[in-house]
Amino acid sequence: MNKNTDFNEKCYTLLRQIPKGKITTYKELARALGSKAWRAVGTALAKNPDLITTPCHRVIRSDGNIGEYALGREKKIELLKSEGIKITNGKIENFEEYFYSFQP
């Protein structure tokens, strides 16, 4: 397994830990991986081969904006709302209420 594939798999493993109805950030995922490479996390998520079991729609930007999604922003909003997350104008309401932090 090459370095990038290994990094991607570690991202996916963490993603599967995020409970339904919670969100995390690219930065938080990078921190949990012992890295500051949140852009690399975004690249890994863009290559996610299984959107069903690896819920990358639960990863948003640190400023509360929902960011991009392989199936489009509207689909990401639809999925997050279906999990009970409140979104207004493409931004998570009460960010802290839904935030999932990985334990060190």
Structural write-up:
It is a single chain. The two termini are 25 Å apart. The protein has five helices and four strands, in the order αβααβαββα. The longest helix has 13 residues, at 3-15. Helix 2 (26-32) packs across helix 3. With 104 residues, the protein is mainly alpha-helical. The mean pLDDT is 92. The chain has a single domain (3-98), classed as Arc Repressor Mutant, subunit A (Orthogonal Bundle), CATH 1.10.10.10. The chain is globular. It comes from Sulfurovum zhangzhouensis.
Keywords:
104 residues, mainly alpha, two-stranded antiparallel ribbon, 41% helix
Briefly note the CATH topology name: Arc Repressor Mutant, subunit A
The proportion of residues in beta strands is 5-15%
Share of helical residues: 40-55%
Output the number of helix runs.
5
Radius of gyration: 13 Å
Q: Main beta sheet: strand number and arrangement?
A: 2 strands, parallel
The CATH architecture designation is Orthogonal Bundle
> How many E strands?
4
Q: Please mark out the parts with pLDDT under 50 across 5 or more consecutive residues, or reply none.
A: none
- The figure for the number of domains is 1
Task: Please state the average pLDDT score.
Answer: 92
